[in-house]
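Recap slide: Glutaredoxin family protein, sequence and predicted structure.
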Amino acid sequence: MLPECQLFGTLGCHLCEQAEAILLPLVEHGLMVELLDIAEQEQWMDDYALRIPVLRRVDSGAELDWPFEAEQVVCFLR
């Protein structure tokens, strides 16, 4: 079973849109990804403003910073 994940990004971020496109096939195969806008919390802005998009595993808290490809995401989820 795939771990639940969060994708930190923000509106109008073209890199975030690219990350979503990479994740879409995995979502179609059962990956649950919650999209989180860093503008919603000051702490997220502090933590992620210079790093987005960032994929975070809910179970372990492990983070995968951009840039990433589908193969890297698959390894990250194992």
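The first strand starts at residue 5 and ends at 9.
The longest helix spans residues 14-28.
(End of recap.)
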